[in-house]
Amino acid sequence: MLTQRSRYALRAMLFLTQQQAATGPVPMNRIAAEANVPRKFLELILADLREAGFLLSTRGKMGGYRLARPPHLISLGEIIRVIEGPLALVPCVSRTAYRPCNDCKDEATCAIRHAMARVRDETARILDGTNLAGAVAEELAAA
C-alpha cells in the first residue's frame, strides 16, 4: 500500500506541475495549503525530492520550490522510489535492493516470487509510464 508520505509527495509534485507557468518559485506554505500536506512533513519530503534532483529551491522572501525538469520528464514511479524505495513487494524481486527471502526454499520454483515479479513489472510499467504532465492533464480532463 502507498504510504501517506508518498501520497503527500505526489500531491506536492502535481501542484508544482500545475504552477509550472507561474513566474518564480512557489513558497512552501502555499504548497502545503494547496496540496493539503502538513508543513512539517512537507519540509522533509521536499528536501528528499530536491536531493534527488526533481526540485530546485530558492531561499529568501521570494523563495520557494519549482520543478528542476519539465513535468513530462518526471514519472510517478521515480517519485515513489525516492520516497519509498523499491516498488517490489518482496525483496527477492527487487531490481534495486535485491535480497533473498529468509523462508524461501528455492527461488527458481517459488510461485510467490514469480507472481510478485509480474506485479512489480506491471506496477513499474504503469508508474514509470505516467509522468507529471500526463497526470495533471488527466486530472483536468476529469474535472
From TrEMBL:
Q: Which domain of life is it from?
A: Bacteria
> Quick check: keyword DNA-binding in the entry?
yes
A single GO molecular-function term is: DNA-binding transcription factor activity
Q: Does the keyword Acetylation apply?
A: no
Question: Which PROSITE patterns does this one have?
Answer: HTH_RRF2_2
One term under GO cellular component: cytosol
Q: Which InterPro entries match?
A: Tscrpt_reg_Rrf2, WH-like_DNA-bd_sf, WH_DNA-bd_sf
Ordered alphabetically, the record's keywords are: DNA-binding
Q: What NCBIfam families would the database entry show?
A: rrf2_super
The protein in question is named Rrf2 family transcriptional regulator
State the taxonomy lineage.
Bacteria, Pseudomonadati, Pseudomonadota, Alphaproteobacteria, Sphingomonadales
